[in-house]
Amino acid sequence: DGGITQSPKYLFRKEGQNVTLSCEQNLNHDAMYWYRQDPGQGLRLIYYSQIVNDFQKGDIAEGYSVSREKKESFPLTVTSAQKNPTAFYLCASSIKGQGDTEAFFGQGTRLTVV
Amino acid sequence: AQKVTQAQTEISVVEKEDVTLDCVYETRDTTYYLFWYKQPPSGELVFLIRRNSFDEQNEISGRYSWNFQKSTSSFNFTITASQVVDSAVYFCALSEWNYGQNFVFGPGTRLSVLP
Description:
A: 46% strand, globular, B: mainly beta, 6-stranded mixed beta sheet
């Protein structure tokens, strides 16, 4: 089945550790996105990528890093510099990085700092 | 700057009632796109509809209907004869036509449909 796969579903991190969230899509989409969702709030854009080997910061990129070495993969690293990383993280993709296409979402990763 | 407002934080209705979720947006572009997504308890956002700024026709899909009014910058979503399975958080989103697409989401409306 085509879709977006995020792993793991739940992730626990100790303070001071870096952790990487996986996002893979087999939809052959050019654009991929990472969003953060806090309880009772909307989605905020962390990073997005329109094509391989290119990515742009979103509204809340500080403390996060990404790579886009392959079209189907867009991993997100939450670094120790992120002061409040506990949140629900959603990865999405769209056919192309222009406004007229909808984004499809993965099932999310819930990250908790312990 | 883009902005999406969903003034209703939470709505509760009894099954079979109709319910309308409000969405008001701000943009300086003349070409833009509006979306509605549903987020069930599982967490994944499910795409419901896309509407471009040049198409003000209302749309109906089964029990769902959408009313787009550019004059009031609104894109409201109505569920007719609501069902318990409609319980979810609903997000309205806006995207402009440019390289570096950025979906801007509203804060969401939590809909609870009671049996």
